[in-house]
Amino acid sequence: MAARIFYQEDCNVSLLxxxxxxxxxxxxxxxxxxxxxxxxxxxxxVGLYKGSKSWKKAEDQGLTVTTTAEAAKxxxxxxxxxxxxxxxxxxxxxxxxxxxxxxxxxxxxxxxINYKCIVPPADVDVAMIAPKAPGHTxxxxxxxxxxxxxxxxxxxDATGKAWDLALAYGAGIGGARAGILETTFKTETETDLFxxxxxxxxxxxxxxxxxxxxxxxxxxxxxNAYFECIHEMKLIVDLIYQSGFAGMxxxxxxxxxxxxxxxxxxxxTEETKNNMRAVLADIQSxxxxxxxxxxxxxxxQVHFQAMRKQAAAHPSEKVGAEIRKLYSWNNEGDKxxxx
Length: 339
Known about the structure:
Helix content is 57%, strand content 12%. It has helices at 28-39, 54-60, 68-74, 84-95, 111-114, 135-143, 162-172, 185-200, 202-217, 222-231, 233-251, 254-267, 270-285, 287-296, 302-312, 315-324, 331-338; strands at residues 5-6, 20-24, 43-48, 64-67, 77-80, 104-107, 125-131, 150-156, 180-182. The protein has a nine-stranded mixed sheet with strand order 1-9-8-7-6-5-2-3-4. Helix 5 (111-114) links the parallel strand 6 and strand 7 (125-131). Helix 9 (202-217) packs antiparallel against helix 10.
């Protein structure tokens, strides 16, 4: 059975009127949800820990800010938008004691519910609205009168109204303008983690950097290697984003298209596919989640910080930084890193 897709006419934003909505966190997604809901006429507060550097920023943008516990106690709908590894402790300390029967607990990623790091009481609704874009895009598309596609799921429907309220929330942040696709917490968690690890981040970054290494080891100028294997990735991805693989292949040369067909299977082999299956198996079994949470526990992050340091030392990073200084389009990306 095909998953349903919901649009504006399927969602009743007026269901949010009279509802008090707490947005926990004010990072990439948090600021977008809070400001979009505010612009949609909703009663929104932001919940942060005392001393958060985002406190003044949220207030300067016209939002009411309280501690996380105060926001949870005040709210009817609580959307948790802080890092996955921090959610369970925060929930236990600040949200669980303040939940009331009939409240809705919301997430933008299924991780903590799927792996049972958070187990809500049976008398609250548990739902998800997961935008398929970074928060700044969720905000900019909304401001442009458009929207970002979202996923919707309901894990627990204690009130019998969870679906309608979740769709109203999705419409409130602009998702129904583009389409809200039905899913489950399990499916969203497993496919999201797999996409990040095997393709979008782990796969693509390793592919680009390995291509860079191969050209440099063959004696080519590292700047040339950066342009061919890293810089141009955006140009190809933009074409795929706009018109699919066929549209991208229509736009490139016959030489490039021919090379696509004959060389792609030599690089991405059956062995590669089997390794991707193993990545998925670790996600499905909970092995990845266990490893990740163990490394993040007690603020240790030993393995994580070591991998981050190693990745930052890759030669392509130094070459890329020098090349990007030559172009005006580098400014925004470098600001994201420096901030």
